[in-house]
UniProtKB/TrEMBL annotation:
Protein name: ATP-dependent DNA helicase RecG
Role this protein plays: Plays a critical role in recombination and DNA repair. Helps process Holliday junction intermediates to mature products by catalyzing branch migration. Has replication fork regression activity, unwinds stalled or blocked replication forks to make a HJ that can be resolved. Has a DNA unwinding activity characteristic of a DNA helicase with 3'-5' polarity.
Catalysed conversion reaction: ATP + H2O = ADP + phosphate + H(+); Couples ATP hydrolysis with the unwinding of duplex DNA by translocating in the 3'-5' direction
PANTHER family found in the cross-reference section: ATP-DEPENDENT DNA HELICASE HOMOLOG RECG, CHLOROPLASTIC (PTHR47964)
NCBIfam families, alphabetized: PRK10917.1-3, PRK10917.2-2, recG
Stored InterPro entries: ATP-dep_DNA_helicase_RecG (IPR004609), DEAD/DEAH_box_helicase_dom (IPR011545), Helicase_ATP-bd (IPR014001), Helicase_C-like (IPR001650), NA-bd_OB-fold (IPR012340), P-loop_NTPase (IPR027417), RecG/Mfd (IPR047112), RecG_dom3_C (IPR045562)
Gene Ontology BP, a term: DNA repair
Main enzyme class: isomerase
CDD domains: DEXHc_RecG (cd17992), RecG_wedge_OBF (cd04488)
Keywords (A to Z) from UniProt: ATP-binding, DNA damage, DNA recombination, DNA repair, DNA-binding, Helicase, Hydrolase, Isomerase, Nucleotide-binding
Source organism of the structure: Acetomicrobium hydrogeniformans ATCC BAA-1850
Residue span(s) of domain Helicase C-terminal: 466-625
Family: Belongs to the helicase family. RecG subfamily.
């Protein structure tokens, strides 16, 4: 194979602006599609294909089908539609078997191109109107008399578009770019991997994915390109993980110390589940090593992750180090502080709360306690990472509800110590493919068992026409001593959004349930007001809490057994599951009502899943299918899951292969010295994204 010179390599980095027919305006439109360079354009793959291998005679056309035609124009006229005042171009066409009409809306100047006698290739949807066959807004290509149409008789790519670009123009640009620049693309996969899995060469895969000959060939090309994306990310993560293990030294913590043992024996009124014991065992093995633990702990709502976090933090304290827990909201910080302080009251272990609502004097005192080491366990919000917070010896960091924090926030807390062990927790189950991809540098533990006595929450979808029956059910449960969450998507009424606000629902519930106490909680309340409302609900001074989704994370009230989620279609699947997890936590039967209509097929799917299962991991997989990986856990802004080809829902097996190959390669050649082209491709592809991924 001939070598590609650096100058030729730079051609792939050239801006698309300088390609023939592009210029500044179209370059700006291509940028909206993520296409900045020639290489971006080569890797800008179709979203679907149209099979134009069969040219259909007009006499054989079927209404509501798609067809490719080769016809001659026999008449053209312009019209203005009566109903919507649109410009309409109508071309009467024939292929000798029959006559049809081609219709275009708002295509100015088209009548000048389609003069009588022009030979044209058309592709589009067929309709029948007043006995006349019509093809609506078809793609077209004017055919020279001595030439064959380029798109006829082929499988044709259909690309994502933005306003101002047409399929026809974009296909022509990509076809020219492939012809001119594909030869400069270099193979970077090790030859043994290519041969082991029967992958096509990279150039062939790129060309075949744009212009497949058949389905089998397309699948082969797709598999190669998807593997490339997954392999590069797994390779980068494996390298970073190895570097961390070789270059860092964490505190050596041990389990089984006096505080940890006393906590288990004297402070808990329940036994750990087998799943909790298994996870604790994983953590104990990790923190006894000098390699910093990076462990992701997944557990459904109510599975007992906080107990595991406390046991891990006590291991740090027993060994002479400090521990910190960072949570996303002040309400949750206060709740954790109250629960953990109560648990540890018999152990004389100092627990400090650090939130933004402290007075300057309180904050200064707690800063000093943390710096001196008097505070052994510190619980707080993002206040933990503010300038001025200094730990004496931070040995363990726990990050709760990790998806609520930015990557850099998490990194900043870890930097407060000298490579402390890190336990990242989430009650939002992350599908395995996403966990391996986004959190590939973290070991994974799962609590897949609920404590004894927890019964699944009964979930029902009801329309607002049944509000009266719902009110009666709620009143009956209130009289029996239960408490109720009533969640709405908006704080205030909106003219543009058709949804009920907490303000409006709060007023109506105060009237309907005048014999009961109703509270209001939303994000615009000040921290003291939010805290007091939550505490009143916890004490039982409030019977109904009307709230936005601020109650989604962590709030734990034993007698709250009814959850009403109004206009539920406005919430994502995982968010609905999180909200549902707030009820049924005290041993009583929990009920969740999804209130309102489902205006879209996706909303109906979400409701169906919610009503059929309470398994958070099943829900997570369905959510990934519905929403895609980027939206799922806030990683889209980092570019970590923005794959052009790979699909984290369907490419699980390919991901496993990519991960295994990456680990073997890094084990044998940590610096990729034997594979300079692979190393160069890794750096150019991932860049800063990789450094973000490894801090997840």
């Amino acid at each position: 194979m001939s070598k590609v010179s650096p100058a030729e390599e730079e051609l792939l980095c050239k801006s698309v602006r300088f390609l023939k027919g592009v210029g500044p305006k179209r370059a700006s439109l291509l940028s909206k599609l993520g296409v900045e360079t020639v290489e971006d354009l080569l890797y800008f793959f179709p979203r679907r294909y149209e099979d134009r291998r069969q040219i259909t005679p007009i006499k054989s056309l079927e209404p509501d089908s798609y067809a490719a035609l080769l016809v001659r124009v026999v008449g053209v006229e312009k019209k203005i539609t009566k109903k919507r005042n649109l410009n309409l171009t109508v071309a009467t066409v024939t292929d000798g078997t029959d006559i049809a009409q081609a219709l275009w809306f708002n295509k100015r100047g088209l009548e000048n191109l389609l003069s009588i006698g022009t030979l044209v290739a058309l592709f589009g949807k067929i309709k029948e109107n007043y006995g006349m066959l019509q093809i609506l807004n078809p793609e077209f290509e004017i055919i020279e008399e001595d030439a064959l149409p380029e798109e006829m008789g082929k499988i044709v790519p259909i690309y994502p578009l933005t306003e101002g670009l047409s399929q026809r123009w974009l296909r022509l640009l990509i076809r020219r770019t492939l012809s001119e620049y594909l030869s400069y693309v270099e193979e970077f996969l090790p030859e043994d991997i290519v041969l082991r899995y029967g992958f096509p060469p990279l150039k062939k895969a790129i060309l075949g994915y744009h212009y497949p000959d058949d389905e089998r060939g397309w699948k082969s090309c797709r598999k190669r390109l998807a593997f490339d994306e997954l392999f590069l990310l797994q390779l980068g993560v494996a390298i970073k993980r190895r570097q961390m293990e070789e270059e860092t030294s964490a505190p050596k913590l041990s389990c089984g110390g006096p505080l940890q043992m006393k906590f288990v024996e004297n402070c808990l009124n329940f036994k750990l589940t087998s799943a909790q014991e298994m996870v604790l065992g994983d953590i104990c093995v990790d923190i006894f090593r000098k390699i910093p633990m990076n462990r992701l702990l997944q557990g459904d709502v109510g599975s007992g992750k906080t107990v595991i976090a406390v046991l891990a933090m006590l291991a740090a304290v027993d060994t002479g180090y400090q521990a910190a827990m960072m949570v996303p909201t002040e309400v949750l910080a206060n709740q954790h502080y109250a629960k953990i302080t109560n648990w540890l009251s018999k152990l004389n272990a100092e627990v400090t709360l650090l939130t933004s609502s402290l007075t300057p004097q309180e904050r200064a005192k707690r800063y000093e306690d943390i710096k001196s080491g008097r505070s052994r366990i510190v619980i707080g919000t993002h206040s933990l990472i503010q300038e001025g917070v200094e730990f004496r010896e931070l040995g363990l960091v726990v990050i709760d509800e990790q998806h609520r924090f930015g990557v850099l926030q998490r990194r900043t807390l870890m930097d407060k110590g000298s490579y402390p062990h890190t336990l990242v927790m989430t009650a939002t189950p992350i599908p395995r493919t996403l966990a391996l991809t986004v959190y590939g540098d973290l070991s994974l533990s799962i609590i897949d068992e609920l404590p004894p006595g927890r019964t699944p929450v009964r979930t029902q979808w009801i329309g607002k026409g049944k509000l009266k029956e719902l009110y009666e059910f709620v009143k009956k449960k209130l009289l029996a001593g239960n408490q109720v969450y009533w969640v709405c998507p908006l704080i205030d009424e909106s003219e543009s959004i058709d949804a009920t606000s907490v303000q409006k629902r709060y007023r109506s519930l105060c009237e309907i349930f005048s014999d009961f106490k109703v509270g209001l909680l939303h994000g615009r309340l000040g921290a003291p007001d939010k805290d007091e409302t939550y505490r009143a609900f916890l004490r039982g001074d409030l019977d109904i809490l009307v709230a936005t989704s601020v109650i989604e994370v962590g709030i734990d009230v034993a007698r709250a057994n009814i959850m009403v989620i109004e206009d539920a279609y406005r919430f994502g699947l995982s968010q609905l599951h999180q909200l549902r997890g707030r009820v049924g936590r005290g041993g009583g039967q929990g009920y969740c009502f999804l209130l309102g209509e489902a205006p879209t097929p996706e909303a109906r799917k979400r409701f169906k899943v919610m009503c059929s299962t309470s398994d958070g991991f099943v829900i997570a997989e369905e959510d990934l299918k519905l929403r895609g990986p980027g939206a799922f856990c806030g990683v889209r802004q980092h570019g970590i899951t923005d794959f052009r080809v790979a699909d984290l829902v369907n490419d699980v097996d390919l991901l496993d292969i990519a991960r295994e190959e990456a680990q073997v390669l890094v084990e044998n050649d940590p610096s990729l010295d034997k594979y300079p082209k692979l190393r160069a491709r890794l750096i150019s592809t991932l860049g800063e994204t990789l450094s973000l991924a490894i801090t997840g």
